[in-house]
Design a protein that fits this description.
6 helices
Length: 215
């Protein structure tokens, strides 16, 4: 599987960052509840069932740090996790493509997410997760439009690549990368991950650790 190239030192920095403490801090239901923007943040976004919880758990090396809901689309909060004893906030956004939820609730979640993405000064990058079995969908494109408009840097992560033959994954990655060339806020490299197999996890840790100053 093709992955970004990182030095041994960068891979080690990523390992060290995520081998330290990883703790749930709070669930935020409105902008007034956001913690102080006193450290760098990265956030993870994506459709329900795309594998966000599994990826966050794989990054942190913990089985139940982030818990997947038994009812897709039921996560109501921006979930904040402290990584490395105050070095980084990792934020898990509610899944898009909500199922069995009222239009009023969907509107409230969407308003909160849009306000967060537009106005959080400490947000360094949004990782937008896309199921490698499906490729970009309409909801993904809508979020990309929002991120482009707000000039928020984002990067696509293909998930569950172990479930798809390698040629199909590469084709999907190439198609996504071609579309990103026309988007000003998008990172050009499409990451490929499998939480189950551990593929791409070390590289994603290194990508995140590179945002931080050396310890």
């Amino acid at each position: 599987m093709d992955t970004p190239s990182f030095s041994d030192d960068q891979i080690e920095a990523g390992r060290l960052l995520f081998s330290g403490s990883a703790e749930f801090v709070m669930g935020v239901v409105d902008l007034a509840g956001l913690p102080p923007a006193d450290r760098l943040e990265v956030c993870f976004a994506g459709r329900s069932n795309v594998g966000k919880s599994s990826l966050i758990n794989a990054l942190a090396g913990r089985a139940k740090l982030a818990r997947a809901s038994t009812e897709p689309g039921r996560t109501r909060e921006l979930n904040y996790f402290d990584i490395g004893e105050g070095r980084l906030f990792l934020v898990d956004l509610p899944g898009f493509g909500y199922a069995q939820v009222s239009k009023t609730q969907v509107a409230a979640w969407t308003k909160l997410i849009r306000a967060y993405l537009r106005g959080r000064p400490s947000l360094r990058r949004v990782f937008l997760l896309v199921d490698s079995r499906r490729g970009l969908m309409d909801t993904d494109t809508e979020i990309m439009d929002l991120l482009d408009g707000a000039a928020v840097n984002y990067q696509i992560i293909l998930t569950k690549v172990d479930k798809v033959p390698k040629p199909e994954v590469e084709k999907t990655a190439a198609e996504v990368a071609a579309k990103l060339k026309k988007r000003g806020a998008a990172h050009p490299v499409v990451l490929q991950t499998s939480s189950e197999k551990g593929w791409g996890i070390a590289e994603l840790r290194a990508e995140i650790a590179a945002f931080l100053p050396p310890v």
